[in-house]
Amino acid sequence: MDSLVVDHPLAASLLTILRDERSDNAAFRHALRRLTQMLVYEAVRDAPIEEFEVRTPVATTTGVRLQQPPLLVPVLRAGLGMVDQAHALIPQAQVGFVGLARDEKTFEPVPYLESLPEDLSGLPVFVLDPMLATGGSMVHTIEILASRGATDITAVCVVAAPQGVEALASCGHPVRLVTATIDEGLNENKYIVPGLGDAGDRQFGPR
Ligand code: URA
Fold first, then answer.
1. Assuming Cys at both sites, which of 5, 18, 123, 124 could form a disulfide with 70, CB separation 3.0 to 4.6 Å?
2. Can 181 be counted among the known catalytic residues?
3. What is d(CA 172, CA 139) in angstroms, rounded to the nearest whole number?
4. At 60, which CATH number?
């Protein structure tokens, strides 16, 4: 599986704000938005472009645009804090939604919302979820997308655990990962260590 760890001093300092338990909900959301911008920027780096003619006030020249803007799919609820900024970077993108809760006993994803175009064939998809822990939610989402014909899926995450990376690599679907870090592992409650805690609570409260 292709994976890209965005290694940049500005990304690392935003990640530090996210990790810091003293960051309140507003500071956390702000840093998440800014870091998402960098992750999506890198996720788009090799996207196919098409050329078209554009007139400047002085002359005609060649301009470019994305051949096919991706479908953005935030995984609710933590992915909500990434979608605005991703959409600001790619305003032509459509947005779909997948809602998954985590069963706190089994740690398995419990689906509660699926709002996606019927046919995703030929459409690149960016799944937005800050935490790739066991990979259960991400693999579940990828299976939903693949069942609708998606073959070009990018998981855009902030923090990944090695177990989640392995789950993506072995899920049997073509997927690419863009993340700000691959952390040490998971604790007994399947939280990423050192991680940043519960990305939903850190955005929306309680801290
Ligand atoms: N989900 C989170 O929000 N945080 C983790 O560490 C793991 C899953």
1. 124
2. no
3. 10
4. 3.40.50.2020
Q: Which ipTM was obtained for this model?
A: 0.96
Transcribe 155-184 into DSSP letters. Answer: EE-SEE-HHHHHHHHTSSS-EEEEESEE-S
Residue nearest to atom 7 of ligand 1 (CA): 191
147 Cα–ligand 1 center, Å? 26
User: In which domain, by residue range, is 115 found?
Assistant: 3-204
Cα angle for residues 24, 30, 34 (degrees, 5° grid): 145
**Cβ atoms of residues 138 and 167 within 8 Å:** yes
pLDDT at 106 > cutoff 90: no
Q: Separation of 199 CA from ligand 1 center, angstroms?
A: 6
On average, the pLDDT of the chain sits at 96
Q: What's the domain count of the chain?
A: 1
Ligand 1 in reach of 198 Cβ (< 6 A): yes
Helix (H) or strand (E) holding 19: helix 9-19
Query: Please, are residues 179 and 135 in contact by the beta-carbon 8 Å criterion?
Result: no
What digits encode the pLDDT tens for the residues 51-87? 999 999 999 999 999 999 999 999 999 999 999 999 9
Q: Residue 4: what pLDDT? A: 98
